[in-house]
Each structure stands twice: as structure tokens, then as C-alpha cells.
What we know:
- This protein has helices spanning 44-51, 61-70, 95-108, 113-132, 134-146, 160-165, 168-178, 197-204, 251-262, 268-276, 307-321, 327-344, 348-361, 368-376, 380-391; strands at residues 3-6, 12-17, 23-30, 74-79, 84-91, 184-190, 224-229, 235-242, 283-289, 294-302, 396-401.
- The protein is of the alpha+beta class.
- The strands form two sheets. A six-stranded mixed beta sheet has the order 1-2-6-3-5-4, with helices on both faces. Strands 7-11-8-10-9 form a five-stranded mixed beta sheet, with helices on both faces.
Amino acid sequence: MPKVINMANGIKLVSQHMQHTESVSISVWVATGSRYESLESNGISHFLEHMAFKGTKRRSAKQIAEEFDDIGGHFNAHTGRETTVYYAKTLKDDAHVAVDILADIIQNSVFDEEEVERERGVILQELAMTIDTPDDIIFDYFQETAYPAQAMGRSILGTEEFINNVQKIDFVNYIENHYYGENIVIAVAGNIAGSNIENIIAEQFSVIKPGKKSTFEKAIYSGGEFREKRDLEQVHIVLGFEGINYKSDDIYKAQLLSIVMGGGMSSRLFQEVREKRGLAYTVSSFNSSYCDAGLFNVYAGTAPEHVNELLKVVKDELHKASHLIEQKELDRARAGVRSSLLMSKERAGSVADDLGRDFTCFGRNITVEEHLEKIAAVNITDLSSMMGRIIKGNPTFAVIGEIDGVESLVM
């Protein structure tokens, strides 16, 4: 079981010893992301994550990179809709160095104007690259269509206008409003026996101020259609429906259902769309789940002349699944989830991620045994009933490419 320390400033420190590893993984989870942003500040969470590695009161951007390279460590960060995560992985004897750097970048970033300008250009290029990549940008368009005119529907990268105008004071204010104790979970996993890594973390992060957890506006699913004509070899589609939030026990049914439908080479959509008909190279289904909302999605890319046939096959398979899921399909999906869960416990990085996510999202550790018990309780009737419930809702449909002739979506 993980060890949990509730620091005086509200930070929750969670650690798990893994004897048979030579490494230690540390992740700092901050409960803030793009859905915590206003319309005017859309993109600041992501921009701030970039700026964290661009210099502190003690280190330049080059020194940060060199100090990690000096110990052969790996470090990075990522921004989502509900969390921002900073993480590092090092050999066990160098874990204290990683902690010192992570604490420094989170608490002491200076947001030097030259670095802001330089990173502004980098993020604008990242935004341009995403817009130019249809199988990336279609998910932003899909999200905005599913959740229009609200934070949940906005891009994590933000807008070109905001990126061009953000200033140092915006970063300072955002940290002041979101980067405080009750909003932070620090997870450590690896070979930490005999080390004082927990004491080092507690000391290094002790100056972060306490404060109430951040709040966000409720997500309201709407659905609808988005179409964009582009000169492309393929038509890219995302078809989705309102799904399950990750705090519901039904999430286990949704996860297994997505695997049955499009989670691998034996899945219904892969077999029917690609193997039997040759309509697409890539077809998949997956869940996007948040604390109060969720989506069940299908993605595929196909030639313009095949898109209507593809859509018909996808819709037919969804309807068929609402009437019957075979036991062997459920057993296969369950085996995949079980192996993934158990294998992930062999890697320090995965364990730290799971601990950080669990305590950020649920306030406690969810054991593998608990996951497996709830997965084992799902039956084929549960899956077909859930599929029927999902597809009865208002769909969201996004399509990019040569869209002339693409029929309107009717379930």
C-alpha cells in the first residue's frame, strides 16, 4: 500500500516503494487545466507548463536541461483539461536532484521576457502544426462541437490571439490562483527504501501556500455537426456521444465496451471496417472521461468515395452491439484490461502516474484488486445496455476533407 503524508500546506505526498527497480519516478499533479480557464485566458495552462522549464531564480533554462542531463534523468510535463503534470525519472541515487529541480521550476520560475517571446513562437508553431494535421485538429473541432461555448470545449493549446498577447503578469496571477497546496498531489514510486526522499520533498515544497481547491464551470454536453472542406487524400471523421464520467462505476462498463468495439485488432470495428471491407487503415473507439462528463468516440480516416459506406458500417455495428455482445468479446476485453493493469505495476513511472491520478481525481488509491473486482462484475448485458443508452443520445459528428457528398449523420 502507498504511504500518504498530508503536508501542513495541504499538499498530499504519496509514495510507493518498489524494491526491484533502480529508478525513482516523481510526478507533481496540479488540479488545473484548460477547463479552469476563462475565454480570455484560454491557453494559459499549457503556456505556463512550457515556461516552467525556461528559467528560475536559481537556474537558467540551459542549466535546468544540463542538470537533468548530468544525471541521465528524464523530465517533461503535460497539460490536460483538468490537470497539469510535471514529472521526472532518475536513478535512485539522484532522486533528490530531480526533486530540487521540480520544486524550483514550480515555485521560482521568473518568466524572463526573452524566454516568453521565444516560447511564444514555439507554441504558435505547435498550434500551426496541429491545425495543419487533420487527424489532430479534428478532435479539437469535435470537442468544441460536443461542448460549445464553454471551457470544456476549448482547445488546450488556446488561441493565436491569446498566445500573441500573454504577458508575465498573466502567469504570475494564474499561479497565485491555482498553484497552492490543496490543488497539488506529489507522487513518488521506485526504489526509495532507506532514502529520505519524502523529507526532502516535504521541505522543498513547504513554502507553497495553502488554499481552497480550484473550481470550474459544469460541463454541458450538446452535440451537433462540424464540417470543414480541405484538399486531402482522406476524409477524417469522429463520431461520438455523451459518455460516462470517471467517478461513476459505469466507467468500467464504458472502458470494456470501447475495447470490444474498437480497442484492438480483434475488435468489431477493426474487423468489419478494415479486415473485411478494407475501408480504412485506422479505425478505433475510445472514452474521453472527466470528473463530471464523458464522451464515447469513434475515429476513422478513409477515401472520400468510401466515407458514406464507412459511416453506415460504423452505425450498424453500434446498433448491433446495443442488442448483443458475445461473452468471448467481453472475456477478451477483460483480459486486455487485466494484463495492462498488472504490467503497469512493474514500471515506476506508471505507478507514480496512477498514484498521482488517483489522489488528484478520487482522493485515494484505487488498488488493482478493486479495479479487477469491478471489471469482473461486468456482464454482456451491461455492455449491450450501455451501448443502447449511449447511442440514444444526441450524436456529435466532425468531418474534415473532401466533404462534398458526405451524408448528414442520422443514427
